[in-house]
Amino acid sequence: MQSSAHRKEISINFVNLNGEGWELYNLAQDPTELNNLAEANSERLRELLASYEEWKLGIGG
């Protein structure tokens, strides 16, 4: 399973492989999504996940 969301230059991705979880990328600085910023920016990731969950609930997901 894979999910993703984008807000401006930020991308969050969920990859369910071997217990992996959410990843966070700055697309302006890393368009090929090689540098996962999730651990270093956990607060930003939490904010984006809250927005993602709100959006998902709004569409009946």
List keywords for this structure.
3-stranded antiparallel sheet, about 60 residues, alpha+beta, Arylsulfatase, C-terminal domain, globular
List the helices and strands and how they pair.
Blueprint: E1 2-7, E2 10-15, E3 22-26, H1 42-58
Antiparallel strand pairs: 1-2, 2-3
Give a written overview of the molecule.
- The structure is a single chain.
- 28% of the residues lie in helices and 28% in strands.
- It has a 3-stranded antiparallel β-sheet with strand order 1-2-3, covered by helices on one side.
- It is globular.
- The protein starts with a strand and ends with a helix.
- With 61 residues, it is an alpha+beta fold.
Q: What is the compact description of this entry?
A:
With 61 residues, this protein is α+β, with helices and mostly antiparallel strands.
